[in-house]
Specification:
Layout: E1 10-13, E2 29-32, E3 36-39, E4 50-55, H1 64-73, E5 83-88, H2 94-113, H3 121-152
Antiparallel strand pairs: 1-2, 3-4, 4-5
Helix pairs in contact: 1-2
Organism: Marmota monax
InterPro entries: Mito_Release_Factor_mL62
Protein name: Prokaryotic-type class I peptide chain release factors domain-containing protein
Length: 157
């Protein structure tokens, strides 16, 4: 698992991605076609750090709205060339760190794929009532503060 060449198909198991339909892969298989991996080496340490990067804008294996959400939410992980860079050094083993990077990609895609829930009529009604009550209480506090300040005022007549 640690010896992926650039351009070689890497895949992981992800469930619930309706935009991926391919007959020769099992359901839930997500192909990462354009990932490049990099392993760092330090002379005084074990070379177990893994780095996975891919160009987000041209990653056609991710749906366009999902790519946009990932770009907005994880803009600090995207370099000037538009590559999404993920690193992991949580384990002593390089293949586990590479698997952790791929899991991070799966988690990002799953999180960005979530559609916001539409509030029910009851929830919308409760939210509107809460906002009205908060505004009413805010205005009541303003009136109280105003009355306190006017009572402190001294007439110079």
């Amino acid at each position: 698992m640690a010896n992926f060449d650039k351009g070689q198909h890497m895949h992981g198991w992800v469930s619930g991605f309706p935009w991926f339909q391919d007959s020769h892969w099992s359901p839930g298989c997500l192909i990462f076609p354009s990932l490049s991996d990099h392993y760092s080496f330090l002379s005084s340490a074990v070379n177990s750090k893994a780095e996975v990067r891919f160009h987000l804008a041209t990653a056609d294996w991710i749906a366009e709205p999902v790519r946009q959400k990932i770009a907005l939410k994880h803009k600090n992980k995207i370099n000037r060339e538009g590559e999404l860079i993920l690193t992991s050094e949580s384990s002593r083993y390089q293949f586990r760190n590479l698997a952790d990077c791929l899991q991070k990609i799966r988690d990002m895609i799953a999180e960005a794929s979530q559609m916001p829930k539409e509030p029910s009529k009851e929830d919308a009604q409760l939210q509107r009532i809460r906002i009205e009550n908060m505004n009413r209480e805010r205005l009541r506090q303003k009136r109280i503060n105003s009355a306190i300040k006017t009572s402190r005022r001294v007439d110079m007549d």
